[in-house]
Design goal:
This protein has a 5-stranded parallel β-sheet with strand order 4-5-6-7-8. Strands 1-2-3 form a 3-stranded parallel β-sheet. Helices cover about 40% and strands about 15% of the residues. Helix 4 crosses helix 5. The protein contains 8 helices and 8 strands; from the N terminus they run βαβαβαβαβαβαββαα. The longest helix is centred in the middle third of the chain and has 18 residues. It has one domain: Metal-dependent hydrolases (TIM Barrel).
Length: about 260
């Protein structure tokens, strides 16, 4: 039984065929889907899917770093209200992204810190988006930890080095492994087996980052199976064992055991 720890099923790119795509993924053993939030606009669509699929879909609440704009305080207010409703299994996706607009670093850090504090208060895990910002993300987490604010969670779409992986694990973060592990230039497949499998969870990030051989096309829920195949190959384990152990880790992190 596979678990996709990060998928945007409510995306406009799935508007026409989301139910067929979910059905196909389930045929391949993908039974649970964890949906990260982006901003205030998407909560109605997320909740509609939850109503239809019940305990197969789990929702997060959070403000994505690329959506930290001039209305940041309004957006954070929405996140706070959503968290107060008690349905969210995590605060995410949150973090820092310096690829698209590095000029917003300080306001991104402000939003990141505030959401980490809420997660700590509510005893919820966090799901982190980090793009070209490993140092800034780690520094933020380490600074807050020094102040007694500790959280656990997932470093989503991990694309870093072995050293960065170990630094994340030391901060009580699992590594979200998705389509990048199948890329010829992805590099993480070269050291993944040096990380204990208990620190790994699987994800698609669909509709983004489709694995090989579908790279560059719309990612789909069923493509989690390609990620599973590659991770099993990296660890020289059966697909069944990797599916079981990564699902156990995911359910532990999201407190669903």
């Amino acid at each position: 039984m596979l678990t996709d720890t990060h998928i945007h099923l409510y995306s406009e790119e799935f508007a026409e065929d989301v139910h067929d795509l979910i059905a196909h993924a389930r045929e391949l053993g993908v039974e649970r889907f964890f949906l990260p939030a982006i901003d205030a606009e998407y909560y109605p669509a997320m909740k509609a899917l939850k109503e239809q699929y019940g305990d197969r879909i789990f929702l997060m609440a959070g403000l994505h770093p690329t959506h930290v704009k001039d209305d940041v305080d309004y957006q954070l207010g929405v996140v706070e209200k959503e968290l107060a409703q008690g349905y969210a299994v995590a605060v995410g996706e949150i973090g820092i992204d310096l690829y698209w607009d590095p000029s917003t670093l300080e306001v991104q850090r402000y939003a990141f810190e505030q959401q980490i504090k809420w997660a700590s208060q509510l005893n919820l895990p966090i799901v982190i988006h980090c793009r070209e910002a490993f140092d800034q993300v780690f520094e933020t987490l380490e600074s807050l930890r020094a102040d007694g604010i500790k959280v656990s969670g997932i470093l989503h779409c991990f694309t870093g080095t072995l050293e960065q992986a170990r630094r994340a694990i030391a901060l009580d973060l699992a590594l979200g492994i998705g389509g990048v592990v199948t890329f010829k230039n992805g590099q993480i497949d070269q050291f993944l087996a040096q990380i204990d499998l208990r620190h790994i969870v699987l994800e698609t990030d669909a509709p983004y980052l489709a694995p090989a051989p579908y790279r560059g096309k719309r990612n789909k829920p069923a493509y989690l199976y390609q990620v599973l195949q590659k991770v099993a190959l990296c660890y020289s384990l059966s697909e069944e064992e990797v599916a079981l152990r990564t699902t156990e880790t995911a359910l532990r992190i999201f407190k669903q055991l």
